[in-house]
Amino acid sequence: MKKNNSDVSGIVLLSKQAGLTSFSSLSGVKRALGTTKVGHTGTLDSFADGLLVVLVGRLTHLVPHITNFDKTYIALIEFGSETDTLDPTGQIIKKGKIPSKEEVESVLPEFLGEIEQVPPAYSALHVDGKRASDIVREGKSVDLKARKITISSIKLLDFCEKYARIEVSCSKGTYIRSLARDIAEKCSTVAHLKELRRTRVGPFKLEDAVSDEAQISSHLIDMNQEVASLCGMDSFVLSSRYIPDFTNGRPLRSKMFVQDFTSSGEKSEVAVFYPSGQFGGVIVRKPFKGKVSLSYGFVIPYSGNAEKSCDLKIYTWEQIAGGKFSEEFKKAGVSLTIGSFDGSHLGHRALFEAVLSQKKKGFVPGVLTFTRSLRGYKNPESYEGDVVSLSQKIENLRNSGFEFAIIVDFSSEFAKIVGSDFLSMLADKCNLKYLAEGSDFHCGYKGLVGMKEIKQIAAGLDFTLDTIDAVIFEGERVSSSRIRHCVLQKNFDLVQKMLLKPFELDCTGFFWQREGERVISAVKKGEQLLPPDGTYQTRVSFYNFSQKSGEAQKTSAAADCTLENGNLRLTFSDNLISGFVRSIQFF
Questions:
Q1: What global pTM score does this model have?
Q2: Known catalytic residue at 428
């Protein structure tokens, strides 16, 4: 047997076999990975088979996230006999008629939506400190109260003689054994569950699971930002200089991270990643006396490995000031543009093309931008919201071909920096060789340094300043303000022409609730702009994880999106796609 490997962490999608308990099924995972620290996320009865999502090592802390996922089952119901356990392991206690296929089909819709369900007497639920099943085995009776559950879909797959095969998608806490009992009762008869297979847990699917112990090690899923998104969590990157503070449990501050997320007033958990991409743990943000407090969930120590190669390296202003910029980039010299870049519209692209064209001279192209639009910092009460989220902005920069981005969390201290000192810092710390800006660009304390002054500063600091003309579209200058105005006027066609893509609401971190087979709802989070209240035609993108490819797969579906006071309600023409809502495009 392997030594206990305390360092291994990850997710295993395990195909449990019928006849084994969920606990005993973990033995193969323990042997394959050489660890005893494993946890599953929702028990399957011994007679059942299907998907077990197994968390290994430090990731066992995430069990509550996975446990809360909706699940899908395929169940075989045997009508005409009921057992004391409501499954094939029990003794027959009642007999009844065999219903017709039409009878079964007619009662299934009655179970859709939120319903009340009485759990089986033979269950692991505790009554007065003891398992209900243990009390029943002692010859005593138990009185289990009905609980609210949600069934988002239920359909009859097959019917033959006394057997009905159904597919059910349901919330946490649903007992399929009880569902079989209740379906039979609606048909004026009795039944028990003959077979049960779990095919889905949230975004994870049985088709991606492994059963062979030899395959487990090679199919261990690392925790990354896409998987964190699938688990319904925001993801944020820790600044390099604050790694010791984080790993030693020092007080959490927003400046320790690339993103500023303390503006959210909702209690939520955030997945933390080191600059190398290594998962660092979870922190909790929650409202406290009108502000947002941050506290530790758990921390995974930094491995100290070299940073993984990345097509877009991200720096904070504190890292630049502290001399943490890439020596390789600094040696080559950098080309740069500075701005909020809210939306990556046609005007921005003209600046981007100018900066990227300097690669032929050997300069490394980059952008200095802000966690949100400067207008949002300066006029928070009247500001409508950003065109894009920070993660969308970073993705836009990555797709544009930049090699680094400096993300500034605008603060009162940063605002006090004099323009000449700001540019001198970039020249000194990054070896700035080329700067492209619009004619109305200004920087520094109170924006006192404009292009005229920057031209003089550029000559003294030996970098080239290039003035890029504004882009005019349909008679007006393209700007983020104009795009915001068009969104608020519901002119999504013009928005798409200026952005070269539809307006897209980033739904990362939204907590969606099912309201039926085709409807989900959530409360909007974040600083992004929201169109006026009303109903819109949209296209919704989903995340699903595929272990075969090792990546999150993206699917999409058309939906009507109703907005009302920051609440979103999505109604789909077809059944819901499984997975997490990634974004909503407005047309």
A1: 0.65
A2: no
